[in-house]
Amino acid sequence: MPTPKATYCHACAARRQLLYPLPADPLGTTYQLRKYRKHTVVDPTWGVQGIFASTEEKAYADYLVDTRAAGSVIVDTWNRFNIVLCAGRDVGYHYEHGQLIAPADAIQQVLSSEDGRVHAYPIRSSTVTGRKCDDCGGWALVV
């Protein structure tokens, strides 16, 4: 991901109203269902793939809620809102061309401001760095 256009800690993102409500059905669109499948079933045709440890819809919905509840917001150069949360425990696995590479202990929720496209996937916290919040100067997480 290129350098973020803006980064906000959770408190400042909430103050700016950047933590949009989750859709009633996080698998309500064909796009979201396709992304859910991509991040719950290993497919060696994908070069890089984050796979959640659980394929249960409730677990996936919980990952979305958890990320919204505590994650940092990143605004990318295309004005898309993404949220990153270090989970503090393994939530899935990182694969490359179908080969298991490492456990994943963080979650990235992308397109959080787009009701029909919001989705999440596990990432490795080793890819996450700290960056100062553009509002308060406190630390936020950036992928």
Question: Can you tell me about this structure?
Answer:
The chain is of the alpha+beta class and 143 residues long. It has one domain. The protein has three helices and ten strands. It has helices spanning 10-15, 30-38, 57-70; strands at residues 6-8, 48-52, 72-75, 81-86, 92-96, 99-104, 106-110, 119-123, 129-132, 139-142. Strands 1-3-4-7-8 form a five-stranded antiparallel β-sheet. The radius of gyration is 14 Å and the shape is globular. The relative contact order is 0.25. The model has no long low-confidence stretch (mean pLDDT 93).
Q: Keyphrases for this structure?
A:
143 residues, alpha+beta, globular
Strand order of the largest sheet: 1-3-4-7-8
Instruction: Let me know the average pLDDT.
Output: 93
- Residues in helices, as a percent range: 10-25%
Profile the largest sheet: 5 strands, antiparallel
What's the order of the H and E elements? EHHEHEEEEEEEE
Classify the beta-strand content into a percent band.
25-35%
Question: Tell me, what's the shape?
Answer: globular
Which structural class do you get from the secondary structure elements? Answer: alpha+beta
Number of helices: 3
Q: Count of DSSP E strands? A: 10
Give the helix/strand layout.
Layout lengths: L5 E3 L1 H6 L14 H9 L9 E5 L4 H14 L1 E4 L5 E6 L5 E5 L2 E6 L1 E5 L8 E5 L5 E4 L6 E4 L1
In short:
With 143 residues, this protein is of the alpha+beta class. It is 20% helix and 33% strand.
